[in-house]
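FIELD: query
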Amino acid sequence: MVKYVTVFALLGLAAPLSAQTAAAPLKLSVDEAVRMALQDNVDLATDRLDPQIGDTRVAAASGLFKPTIASSVNRNNQLSPPSSLLFPTATRNDVVTSNVGLNQRLPWFGTSYSVGWDTSHTSSNSFLNSFNPLLRSGLSFQVSQPLLRDFFTDAARSNVAISKTNRAISGTRLSESVVRTTAGVKAAYWNLVSARANVEARQAALRLAEELVRVNKAKVDVGQSPPIDLVSAQAEVASNQEQLIVAETSVKQAEDRLRLLIFDAAKPEVWNIAIEPTDAPPVGAANIDVNSAVATALRDRADLLRARKDIENAELSLKLAGNQKLPDVRLNASYQASGLGGTEILRTGGFPGTIVGNGQIVGFGNILNQLFRSDYPTWAVGVSVSYPIGQSAEEANQARSRLETQQASQRLKSAEARAIQQVRDAAWKVEMNARRLETARAVRELAEQRRDVEQKRFDVGMSTSFLVIQAQRDLSQARTNELAAILAYDLSLVDFEALQLAGPASAAATTTSASQAATAATTSSSSAARTTATSSASGVAGVF
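FIELD: result
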């Protein structure tokens, strides 16, 4: 693989960049910038909450299967007026009831059950009662088991499965956000490196123009050159000063874009931290394995993973819709045990007899024994069947779910095709920018040779100030074009890496803009191209 020296060595520049703040600059490598962004980027911090929100939704959906305990205590006092021959006097009933129950829907086979226990204490002046006070207790158990509809799946279980899939989708979105943030930081970093290099290129051009002014002034003073040569050289100095001002502003803008990505931008103090990149941009011809990159994208790209999860959700909905079309056949079973006790009332004579006193007391312990010995059991077992007549809503839902499943599958195929095209296109851009970089480097070297030759000719009186100025302009433009080519190559590498793990979004837009801006800088006229290249090197980062 061909290796190039860094852009600073290429340009032979050593003038320091003017400091923006009095504080010592933060020296930062590209990997350190990425780590800082992954830790402090505010947008990424927001995206990290999505999986946690997804976890709460899974918990909420799963909460339908949690057991529920219910209990109550109630007292009822009733005085009934005499309404028949059997009740010639007003009857008072004072009843205290309490109950506790447990019910749950199981996450398997659609089974649901409930268990309940209740007691009551009744005090009454009714002469028909056998106990006063009367103690009663009951134990009940009920179970309902679907046999067709809701057996393999139901709305609750489907909702849990879909919420888990959506939680996985939110995880892919976070991964995609990490990839795009990483790509954005790298692009902003290389834009800052390019902007600083462009400042040094402008400073070098300004020094050459100032040297030419010094030489021309000396020649004009001794009558060897006409005053117009001095005026032309001074105009070139003014033009280079203008371009240097624009380039220095571009550095400030590029620093702000990088600060926004790697710091908590809500803190005012971070905006005053000067950043000094320590890494030189990669300018070697990368070894691109297109087929391997395509395979990686098809396997790992977040948008494709989401498309597959969408298919899973559609299949879950289709499964539920198909199950809901079945008849609702349920097996229902219940069991109830009762116990009775209290203070027995003794009677003599015929019905209803005369109360002569109290008999034995059947305590609460004996009542519980009656329950657990199942002295007074009640059993019930049955099957219920429900089936709609004619076209049902469930059939329409199944047809819709089937179409949505097919649609999700087609969307995945379309997304995979676009992913292949995007990765291949990014690979071709890397190769193109690598070759373009070689050409730009060669042009810059030839421009340096021409400027040196023209300067030597001028020193011995064989050239004019106009030709020297033109050679200096061409060299400045060649350096600008080389910087633009390096930036376009670096951003195309960032894009190529990001597209294997995430959709294009901002990363693709950034690299495309960088490539277009660099191309414009190459093909525009000499003086206009200097301004275009300077602004494009910093403006590309603004996309992030």
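FIELD: remark
The chain has a mean pLDDT of 82.
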